[in-house]
């Protein structure tokens, strides 16, 4: 039986944790709601799924290559909530003290790190489950790679991707190049929505092939749109494509579940005043 690696999209987990628990802080006024909720979510996931291999990927605060290519990338998103900002270092510290590999790379998003590590894992014989609620990662799905939303219990395989996008996972970025992605402020081609985008990629197989064969588009106004926004479509596909070649050092065998660093965790949980967790780790 092949080895099974679980990779958690840590950045989406952080936001879920932040919104899942009402405001909470310790006696020094340090906000702790996201820290506590994130820790409990990760512990519950490990308890429920007993992963043999496990790692968590995070975004970093620096801009990525996508921002350099397109200054308005994700520009419509509000800044991180003020009382979440000081909790991020604590969350990452807890991941380290739980002895869970923490994956991140300056200049790249967590999605790119997940894409790179999951490809390497699949190529070395692993079955991979990416734990996320983010549809952007659907383009990574293949025979030995599925997405799992631990909040809803929903699994996404090739069939589910085809149902949503009308194409195989490796063509999802082509569809997004046409329809854009409002959640990331990726423009696409104005006036082309999901239905038309899917239909065009089904017919022409790739964005590049479509743009090289515009003479075959019978609908004049559609052909005109594609001619006008050709470069924008190519840029949009590039922005939507998850990288699989991030220069990150990874030894998948080192992702084996290990015992946490109990002494250091007890110190940190004492500072954060996590009484219930302290009982468990101090025992």
What do the pLDDT scores average to?
96
Just name the CATH architecture of the largest domain: 3-Layer(aba) Sandwich
> Which outline best applies?
elongated
**Helical residue percent band:** 40-55%
Q: Quick gist of this model?
A:
The protein is of the alpha/beta class and 283 residues long. Helix content is 46%, strand content 9%. A six-stranded mixed beta sheet has the order 3-2-1-4-5-6.
Question: Could you characterize what this model shows?
Answer:
The chain has 283 residues and is α/β, with parallel strands linked by helices. It folds into 2 domains: 196 residues, Rossmann fold (3-Layer(aba) Sandwich), CATH 3.40.50.1010; 77 residues, 5' to 3' exonuclease, C-terminal subdomain (DNA polymerase, domain 1). 46% of the residues lie in helices and 9% in strands. It is built from 13 helices and 6 strands. It has a 6-stranded mixed sheet. A hairpin with a 4-residue loop joins strand 5 and strand 6. Helix 2 runs parallel beside helix 4, helix 7 crosses helix 11 and helix 12 packs antiparallel against helix 13. The radius of gyration is 21 Å and the shape is elongated. The protein starts with a strand and ends with a helix. The mean pLDDT is 96.
């Amino acid at each position: 039986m092949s080895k099974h690696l679980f990779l958690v999209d840590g950045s989406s987990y952080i936001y879920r944790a932040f919104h899942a628990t009402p405001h909470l802080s310790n006696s020094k006024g340090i906000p702790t709601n996201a820290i506590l909720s994130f820790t409990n979510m990760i512990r519950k996931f490990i308890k429920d799924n007993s992963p043999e291999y496990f790692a968590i990927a995070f975004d970093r605060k620096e801009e990525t290559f996508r921002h350099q290519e397109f200054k308005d990338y994700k520009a419509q998103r509000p800044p991180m909530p003020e009382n979440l900002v000081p909790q991020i270092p604590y969350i990452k510290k807890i991941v380290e003290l739980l002895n869970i590999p923490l994956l991140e790379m300056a200049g790249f998003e967590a999605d790119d790190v997940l894409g790179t590590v999951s490809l390497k894992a699949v190529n070395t014989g692993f079955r991979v489950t990416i734990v996320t609620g983010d549809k952007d990662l659907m383009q990574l799905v293949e025979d030995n790679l599925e997405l799992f939303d631990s909040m809803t219990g929903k699994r996404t395989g090739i069939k589910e991707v085809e149902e949503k996008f009308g194409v195989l996972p490796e063509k999802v970025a082509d569809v997004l190049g046409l329809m854009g992605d409002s959640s990331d402020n990726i423009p696409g081609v104005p006036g082309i929505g999901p239905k038309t985008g899917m239909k065009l990629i089904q017919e022409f197989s790739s964005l590049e092939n479509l743009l090289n064969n515009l003479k075959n588009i019978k609908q004049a106004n559609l052909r005109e749109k594609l001619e006008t926004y050709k470069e924008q479509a190519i840029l949009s596909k590039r922005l939507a494509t998850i990288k699989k070649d991030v220069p990150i050092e990874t030894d998948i065998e080192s992702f084996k579940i290990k015992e946490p660093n109990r002494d250091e965790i007890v110190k940190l949980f004492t500072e954060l005043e996590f009484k219930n967790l302290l009982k468990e780790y101090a025992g």
